Amino acid sequence: MDYDRLNSPNTSAISLEVMGHRLHISQDPNSKHLGTTVWDASMVFVKFLEKNSRKGRFCPSKLKGKRVIELGAGCGLAGFGMTLLGCDVTTTDQVEVLPLLMRNVERNRSWISQSNSDTDTIGSITVAELDWGNKEHIKAVEPPFDYIIGTDVIYSEHLLQPLMETITALSGPKTKILLGYEIRSATVHEKMMEMWKSNFIVKTVSKSKMDVKYQHPNIHLYMMDLKAPLIPEVEATDDNGNDDEEVVSNLGEDEDNGLKSESCSGSSPEAKSGSLDDWEIRRCGAMAARLLKDVKL
User: Fold this and answer.
1) CA distance 181 to 163
2) pTM
3) How many whole angstroms separate alpha carbon 173 and alpha carbon 176?
4) For residues 1 and 254, what is the distance between their CA atoms, to the nearest angstrom?
5) Which range is least confidently modeled, 2-6, 37-41, 224-228?
6) Cβ–Cβ < 8 Å for 210, 233
7) Which of 11, 86, 109, 163 has the fewest C-beta atoms lying within 10 Å of its C-beta?
8) Kindly report the CA angle at 111 between 219 and 96, in degrees rounded to 5?
9) Where is the composition biased (Acidic residues) (predicted)?
10) Which bin fits 270, alpha (ψ -120 to 50), beta or left (φ > 0)?
11) What is the predicted pLDDT for the residue at 230?
12) Residue 137 to residue 195: CA distance in whole angstroms
């Protein structure tokens, strides 16, 4: 495919069909704030959701009523993708961006409700102010959430720490984190991945799972989970530092997304021989930590 930009920031609006609904998203080409542009990663994200909504974890029947928060929403396109799948979305950004975001939410919410006779299949979407790291803003949106999403929210190194702290504060034990991101700086990307792998289990979505038209070689989608606490005696890492990053090519219901999933019960040959590989050690350690979490000694 031709790797031209999917959207021009010089127009005042874009029109995009997502899951049978025509979304009209306004943007401000005269604004100096980056949040007033529909960036390509958000388009890749919603078309990815659309392509994978027939079955698996992104099927509307699985997402109905799930609480979602969008960070750095900008014009709000990614949040609408989750809303159309039945989620209850809180879409957030800095106060300077909120007027445009609220206008997009109100306009498209009205159009969707008028054009869709079965409104029970559509989730809700609301707008809130959230500066990353602001404890009052975080408390006001009432975490934890089932899903945390964001697209093109990282473009500078100074944003990495407050974003990670905010994601952690908004998360619960079962929170799924979905981020779309375009690599613009190799240095920022390397630091971002290093920080993410230290705190999350990071899985990269395969290009084959993305829409054929709406993808770009520099745009990546990541699915992440908070790391479970490990018992120090069994903590282990891979020598190449890539132990927590996998490529997701199967988006089924199982939590391992088609990855290796052996039992820790001792039924495997390795367990019977008393020798566990690194993956099994980490998995057993995480399970032990969860079992011991509520035990008071």
Assistant:
1) 13
2) 0.78
3) 9
4) 32
5) 2-6
6) no
7) 11
8) 55
9) 235-256
10) alpha
11) 58
12) 24
163 near 132, Cβ under 8 Å?
A: yes
What are 297's two structure tokens? 């000694």
Q: Which CATH number fits domain 13-229: 1.10.275.10, 3.30.565.10, 3.40.50.300, 3.40.50.150?
A: 3.40.50.150
Tokens of 5: 């930009």
Q: How far apart are CA 257 and CA 81, in angstroms?
A: 21
Distance CA 126, CA 56 (A): 26
Instruction: Quote the tokens at residue 226.
Output: 């908070």
- For the segment 62-72, what is each residue's pLDDT rounded down to a tens digit? 999 999 999 99
- Rounded Cα–Cα distance for residues 175 and 201 (Å): 12
**The token pair that represents 23 in the structure block:** 């979304």
Please spell the DSSP secondary structure of the chain, one letter per residue: -----SS-TTSSEEEEEETTEEEEEE--TT-S-GGGS--HHHHHHHHHHHHT-SSGGGSHHHHTT-EEEESS-TT-HHHHHHHTTT-EEEEEE-TTTHHHHHHHHHHHHHHHHHH-S-GGGS--EEEEE--TT-HHHHHHT-S-EEEEEEES--SSGGGHHHHHHHHHHHEEEEEEEEEEEE---HHHHHHHHHHHHHHEEEEEEPGGGS-SSS--TTEEEEEEEEPPP--GGG----TTS-TTEEEE----SSTTTTS----SSS-SHHHHTT---HHHHHHHHHHHHHHHTT---
